[in-house]
Design brief:
Elements: H1 3-12, H2 14-31, H3 38-52, H4 71-83, H5 87-112, H6 115-126, H7 129-134, H8 141-157, H9 160-176, H10 180-192, H11 197-226, H12 236-243, H13 273-290, H14 292-297, H15 299-307, H16 325-334, H17 346-376, H18 378-382, H19 385-403, H20 412-431
Helix pairs in contact: 2-5, 3-4, 4-5, 5-6, 5-8, 5-20, 6-20, 8-9, 9-10, 9-11, 10-11, 10-19, 12-13, 15-19, 17-20
């Protein structure tokens, strides 16, 4: 069956596809073992700790944590777990956020391009398995990306109320991950170079007002609960130090916090997150000042760790938690872990590799199409104010990541936005008799 025939079939039976997508996700959440690890487990434990203390996040004892992380996300976890304290509820929240994202992708593409590209964007989104696998995890990506998309959705509509809402949702995104500031910067730069001064003051002023309103309201809420005005994560110094030490590789590496390293703190449980933040920031900046060339030389490696693979959630779909593409490649090339596949059947190993190969072919197709469209049709793409803001957000977001470290899951919001941007090209290709990848 040809590609255009597959897409036409899926577009014709779009509602049935959505229903099937929902049913399969709900089945996974109900019948799949939801065993959290790493950040997923940390966020879950923070929420449980607050529930035990009958407090929102951060609770008073969290002043001795290493940092405050994703405050808005943790508080939403607390609210849903108050309803029913089970990981299944978090899975259902993920499904709700997933479908909200899907609706936003469809709606933004429809207003910017047309009905055809909107359905194409939705179909590409549905078959991007990292999104599907992420419903089994407990990460900030779903909520963060949803808030970014809501901000862009309201920004498309342009009138005063919607621009204020675009700012409010950008502010909410900042309260999940500081990378939301990249969207604020994208709005600023777009207006600085695109409108007259009076229009700049009115439109940009509304967006900034929305951001400030959210920050003031949310930080006031945190102050009433915690005694400090906190509206965003405070782990910037930690992330910077991971990228600025003798063992830095461009990826996450916690060696810098071991005894004898520049990030080591004696009796950390007795120091507040503020004291730790100041110490780690000073150590990181001192290292960068002494090693500027090495720090900058790691930038390409950070992008490599972000974009070279995309398996942060996919292997979970096969009930495989401890394997990933990086470990498998090291095993095949260097036999780095002889116990990696020992307890697994041939069928499980085959499923693992098949899943990763198919998914990565799909993932790299999205990256390739985005790069091709950007290179060949940059003028047309940047001529649209909405697309221009989206591209600026991706640019500024990646710039922030270069300052810290790279990880496969960090690129998730950018991939969703890339799907939006390539949708008209894919739609025109499918509808073109000449099968040229172009835009009208």
């Amino acid at each position: 069956m040809k590609l255009h025939a597959i897409f036409n079939f899926l577009k014709t039976h779009f509602k049935l596809l959505l229903l099937l997508y929902l049913v399969v996700q709900v089945a996974y959440i109900i019948f799949y073992p939801l065993n959290y690890q790493s950040d997923s487990l940390y966020y879950f434990n923070l929420a449980q700790d607050c529930l035990k203390q009958n407090s929102f996040y951060p609770a008073h004892n969290h002043i001795f944590e290493d940092y405050i992380i994703a405050p808005l996300y943790i508080n939403i976890l607390i609210l849903v777990l108050k309803i029913y304290n089970s990981k299944i509820v978090i899975g259902l929240l993920n499904i709700a956020l997933n479908f909200t994202q899907l609706w936003l992708v469809y709606s933004i593409a429809k207003k910017e391009f047309d009905e055809g590209p909107a359905k194409v964007a939705a179909i590409i989104y549905i078959f991007y398995l990292s999104t599907f696998g992420m419903i089994l995890l407990n990460l900030t990506e779903f909520l963060f990306c949803t808030l970014i998309l809501f901000s862009l959705y309201f920004y498309q509509r342009r009138n005063a109320a919607f621009l204020l809402l675009a700012g409010l949702f950008a502010g909410a995104a900042i309260a999940v991950r500081p990378l939301g500031w990249a969207l604020a910067a994208a709005y600023l730069i777009n207006y600085l170079f695109g409108v007259k001064f009076i229009e700049l003051i009115k439109k940009l002023g509304l967006i900034i007002s929305g951001i400030l309103i959210f920050i003031i309201i949310y930080s006031s809420f945190t102050y009433s609960n915690f005694g400090r005005f906190i509206f965003q994560s405070t782990n910037g110094s930690v992330n910077l130090l991971i990228a600025a030490n003798d063992d830095a590789s461009g990826a996450y590496n916690n060696k810098v916090f071991k005894k004898g390293k520049i990030g080591y703190i004696e009796e950390p449980e007795k120091k507040t997150y503020i004291e730790k933040e100041k110490f780690w920031q000073k150590q990181a900046l001192n290292w960068i000042e002494e090693n500027p060339v090495k720090y900058i030389s790691l930038f390409p490696m950070k992008l490599l760790h972000m974009f070279a693979w995309d398996d942060f959630s996919v292997s979970r779909l096969a009930n495989i938690r401890d394997w990933n593409l990086y470990k498998a490649a090291k095993y095949l090339l260097f036999h780095s872990d002889d116990n990696l596949f020992n307890s697994a059947s041939f069928g499980t190993i085959f499923l693992f590799f098949l899943l990763l190969i198919v998914h990565h072919l799909y993932y790299f197709s999205i990256i390739f199409l985005f790069a091709f469209a950007l290179i060949k049709y940059f003028r047309k793409l940047s001529g649209s104010e909405n697309v221009r803001v989206t591209l600026l957000y991706i640019l500024f977001g990646l710039g922030i990541h270069l300052l810290t470290f790279g990880d496969a899951r960090f690129k998730y919001p950018y991939i969703i936005l890339m799907i939006l941007i390539i949708s008209p090209f894919v739609n025109n290709y499918l509808n073109s008799g000449t099968k040229k990848f172009e835009i009208e």
